[in-house]
Design goal:
- There is one protein chain.
- The protein is an alpha/beta fold.
- It has a single domain (3-236), classed as Alanine racemase (TIM Barrel).
- It is built from nine helices and eight strands.
- The strands form two sheets. The chain has a four-stranded parallel β-sheet with strand order 3-2-1-8. It has a four-stranded parallel β-sheet with strand order 4-5-6-7.
- Strand 6, helix 7 (182-203) and strand 7 (209-211) form a beta-alpha-beta unit.
- Helix 1 crosses helix 2 and helix 6 runs parallel beside helix 7.
- It binds pyridoxal-5'-phosphate.
Length: 243
C-alpha cells in the first residue's frame, strides 16, 4: 500500500471501530447489559500482517484466524514488534489434529473444539507441554448440515468428561447462526445461551464466554448475551455497509 492509502485505510479502521463499539454498546443497553462484557475480536483471515498492525493502531487488540498456518504466520510477523505487545490471536476455524501443535501456546483461545476426540487430543498435547489450553466448545445450535460442532445433545453428554480433561480449561461455548435470517440468528444465540446455562450446571464451570455474532448479526448476538463477537468484513472491508 502507498502511504496515502495506508493513512486512508487506518482512518477507515478507526472510524469503523468507533461505529462498531457504538452499536455493541447500544445492543448491550437494550439488553440491560454492561458493554464492557463484550470483546470485539477482529477476524483478520482476509488481510495480511500489515493490515493487522494498522488495526492495532486503530485500537483493536484481539484478532481471530481460521487457519493455523495463518495464525502462526501473522503472530511470527508481528509478535517481535515490542509496540504490539499484548496482541492476541484466537483460533476460530476448523482445527485438524495434526495442526494442534501449531496452535497450542500461540492461540490465546481456541473457539472451535468441535468433538470429544479433538478435545482429548488437544488436552493430551497440552499436558505433554505442561500447559493448559483455554478452549470453547463449538456447538451447532441451528442443526445445519454444513456447520461443524457438537449437537446440543452431544455437548450435554460430553461436557462433564471434557471439563475433567487436565490439559483444557473450558471457558465457554461458540456458535454460528444461519446466514441472512435475523429470527433464526436470534434463536441460535438464545439457544446457545440456554445450553451454556445447562452445561454450567452439569460441569460446575463458569463458562463465561459466549462466542457468537459476526458482521451480519452481532447486534442480535449482543442482545442475546454474547461476550465475544467475531467480526471480519465489517472491520476490514470498506465496501461492507454497516447496518
Ligand atoms: C470469517 C469468520 C468470522 C467473521 O465473519 P464476517 O461475516 O466476515 O464478520 C467469524 N467467525 C468465524 C468462525 C469465521 O470463519
Amino acid at each position: 500500500m502507498g502511504e496515502e492509502r495506508i493513512d486512508d485505510y487506518e482512518a477507515f479502521l478507526a472510524r469503523r471501530r468507533g461505529q462498531l463499539l457504538e452499536r455493541i454498546a447500544q445492543a448491550a443497553r437494550v439488553a440491560g447489559r454492561n458493554p464492557d462484557e463484550v470483546t470485539l475480536l477482529a477476524v483478520s483471515k482476509t488481510v495480511g500482517p500489515e493490515e493487522v498492525a494498522l488495526a492495532w493502531s486503530a485500537g483493536y487488540r484481539a484478532f481471530g484466524e481460521n487457519r493455523p498456518q495463518e495464525l502462526t504466520r501473522k503472530l511470527t510477523a508481528l509478535a517481535s514488534n515490542p509496540e504490539l505487545r499484548g496482541m492476541r490471536f484466537d483460533m476460530i476455524g476448523n482445527l485438524q489434529k495434526n495442526k494442534i501443535n501449531q496452535v497450542l501456546g500461540n492461540a490465546h483461545l481456541i473457539h472451535s473444539v468441535s468433538s470429544e476426540h479433538l478435545a482429548q487430543a488437544i488436552s493430551k498435547r497440552a499436558e505433554a507441554r505442561g500447559i493448559v489450553a483455554p478452549i470453547l466448545l463449538e456447538v451447532n445450535v441451528s442443526g445445519e448440515a454444513s456447520k461443524s460442532g457438537f449437537s446440543p445433545d452431544e455437548a450435554r453428554v460430553a461436557a462433564e468428561g471434557i471439563a475433567a480433561l487436565p490439559g483444557l480449561q473450558v471457558q465457554g461455548v461458540m456458535a454460528m447462526a444461519p446466514a441472512h435470517d435475523a429470527d433464526e440468528a436470534r434463536r441460535t444465540f438464545s439457544g446457545l445461551r440456554e445450553l451454556r446455562d445447562e452445561l454450567r450446571q452439569r460441569t460446575g464451570l463458569a463458562l463465561d464466554v459466549l462466542s457468537c455474532g459476526m458482521s451480519d448479526d452481532f447486534q442480535i448476538a449482543v442482545e442475546e448475551g454474547s461476550t465475544l463477537v467475531r467480526l471480519g468484513r465489517t472491520v476490514f472491508d470498506p465496501a461492507y455497509v454497516l447496518a
